[in-house]
């Protein structure tokens, strides 16, 4: 029997809630969806304050309110720091805000909307040029002391940006984009740093936002051209192969799903049983870059 | 009453002497100019051996000789390491020189030209590919021991270049370019490193070399288009707003003025009373890059 | 009289064996070639498992078998980690492999082919995205304990890639490309890191792969245009000047020759007696970039 404290912070696959508002599920269906994810071994749910135009956390929270016993079986990740353009909120130009007041207000709003007493992991969503690392770290420490947040991390931060905040408060992860169609994190030091420090990254858009399946640009066509027969040879779906390609990285990443279909979660989990050969991994890399390794 | 030792190394705004030779001030006017800067709270004066074709330090030194009591009210920064093309000096190709002999010779020349016994801060002007960090650090230590230089720093150094020399001798600052029209230091790690290490940067060309006011390129037009009405709303000049934009950065930068007009100094100092909102700051960033934040 | 243990790991100039298979030397000629290199003070020989389509180590090893007393007068460097496309080896797509099994197998093959009991330095040839630094470092330690490899390093690794593996097992060097026609390592932090950590780099392609002598592209023409008269003024060959340009770098690089001609080795060694002035060094840099230093 799982208890909240016994669960690892991140399940191998993480369920991304980004598009939950588009799934059009009523509360009972949301509860059932969460239960099915948990049954698949996906116990971490990735949120952000702004997902679904600020609505997703409330949708998820309504399910937790309806089925409170779910809470102790899961880990909740959320993010803050982006202020979307919004007439209602009086924001004319989208920007970032990592001020102590904003981070505290968003954390407390997330707690309310999610109907939980503690967030397991909160990430700074984007690197804020105006981040005062000392002030932010003090806010992290205070919210931790208050029991409102267990762990902290960042998303989309460069090596130097990560090093700055991590020097003030230990960060658990950097959530970054990686897919067979988006290789930047392999070369810009992000994943080298993650592996060096032992901070397993979270991976967003592991399927290239769907471009892997339907993109007609040259890169997508090349990548699909090698991945489709490879998936058939391995007896897995194209999506499973993409997840396996990410899971093969030695920084031990946690891919985040985007799908509302339980089958989509199942395809991600299936990748945990696939270990790509180095040659298969580089065959996909070679198709993506359009040239062989040097 | 100020004393040399009680003054901080860098005043919030630093007076840049780069163009002093063009101001056509006689000695008495130079003394008066310095006094007015001091009265505005600008007690740090930024030089380089090469400014004004090697003449600026001497012009400033003549003022100090005429009014020696100024010295204890100020901090003097200078730089060395560039060898300008010069038939007279036998330099056919402009290059860098951070050899112990050259740095020592330039420091001693700066002391003579400025009519002072000690330089408060000396910067290596540009990153020299041929810099032997150990030998240079030994020279720093020797000149410090001899009482000729109080502190050391660099200018225009990358993160790795700064880390190299800083590992041998603690550097006080990295003087870099930043303005609403020049954003590189925000993204290349320079300011992240400065904040992480607590080494407040100095900022050159905070007004984009005048392009902010008169540039007809698309970027300058966009930036002026948002800054002009913002300055009016805040009740400050365009220049003051540009300084406030820089001062808003959490690395706590020291902008360097370029103007010979006392009014130009006053516009910089006025920025110390302006605190931009994050949205205003990002509105300028957005106009400069031509796209919203991700 | 030299002994293996008294020799420095790397002689100032290192003999590159990359093209040895093309030199068409019989065993006796290979022995003589090695003796001549040693007589010139070049006691380090740079190999890789894949050089000459996997044949060079065997050619060199046959010479060592024929003249076993050479071994204690030299240091042997080799590399592994690249899997070339090869029908025979069942590799359809060129890729990298730094798995413990592959590294161990290649080290043991190099020992057999070279007819030696220990490799003095083994480098990971290219940065492998799939490198598990902990597992690789354990393999390094095991092979060191077994007496098969004395020291470890890497080649073509970025600053972050070097930092990752170096955090698990101390690396002796990063072998990178540098020449008057290829300046990237000067700017990307590689040589700053090398100097900071005191890990003298090895330099491949110091003559730009021959482009320095015969290239008709604008950069090669510009560089030759300043180097040819400079070499004449200094009384050295163009090749010697190129080696001297590299040796002038404060990271204290070890250039690797590529030539099979003993005269080619002599031209490299001659550079040890040349110390370029900073102005000469930057004159070449300026010709290479096509613009003066800032």
TrEMBL record, chains A, B, C:
Source taxon at top rank: Bacteria
GO cellular component annotations of the record: cytosol
InterPro entries noted in UniProt: AKR_Detox_Biosynth, NAD(P)_OxRdtase_dom_sf, NADP_OxRdtase_dom
Domain NADP-dependent oxidoreductase: from-to ranges: 12-284
PANTHER family: NADH-SPECIFIC METHYLGLYOXAL REDUCTASE-RELATED (PTHR43364), OXIDOREDUCTASE YDHF (PTHR43364:SF1)
UniProt name for this protein: Oxidoreductase
């Amino acid at each position: 029997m799982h208890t909240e404290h016994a669960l690892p912070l991140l399940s191998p696959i993480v369920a991304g809630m980004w598009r939950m508002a588009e799934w059009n599920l009523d509360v009972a269906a949301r509860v059932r969806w969460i239960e099915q994810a948990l049954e698949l071994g996906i116990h971490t749910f990735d949120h952000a304050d702004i997902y679904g135009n600020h609505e997703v956390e409330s949708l998820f929270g309504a399910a937790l309110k309806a089925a409170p016993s779910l809470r102790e079986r899961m880990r909740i990740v959320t993010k803050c720091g982006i202020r979307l353009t919004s007439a209602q909120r009086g924001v004319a130009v989208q920007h970032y805000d990592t001020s102590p007041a904003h981070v505290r207000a968003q954390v407390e709003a997330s707690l309310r909307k999610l109907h939980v007493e503690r967030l397991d992991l909160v990430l700074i969503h984007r690197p804020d040029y105006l981040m005062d690392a000392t002030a932010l770290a003090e806010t992290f420490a205070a919210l931790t002391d208050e029991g409102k947040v267990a762990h902290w991390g960042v998303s989309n931060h460069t090596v130097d940006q990560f090093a700055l905040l991590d020097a003030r408060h230990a960060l658990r992860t950097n959530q970054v984009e990686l897919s067979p169609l988006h290789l930047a994190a392999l070369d810009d030091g992000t994943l080298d740093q993650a592996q060096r420090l032992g901070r397993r990254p979270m991976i967003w858009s592991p399927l290239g936002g769907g471009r892997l399946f339907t993109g007609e640009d040259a890169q997508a066509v090349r990548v699909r051209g090698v991945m489709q027969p490879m998936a058939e040879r391995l007896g897995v779906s194209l999506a499973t192969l993409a997840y396996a390609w990410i899971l093969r990285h030695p920084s031990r990443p946690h891919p985040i799903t985007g799908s509302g279909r339980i089958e989509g979660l199942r395809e991600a989990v299936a990748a945990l049983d696939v270990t790509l050969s180095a040659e298969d991994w580089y065959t996909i890399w070679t198709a993506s870059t359009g040239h062989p390794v040097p």
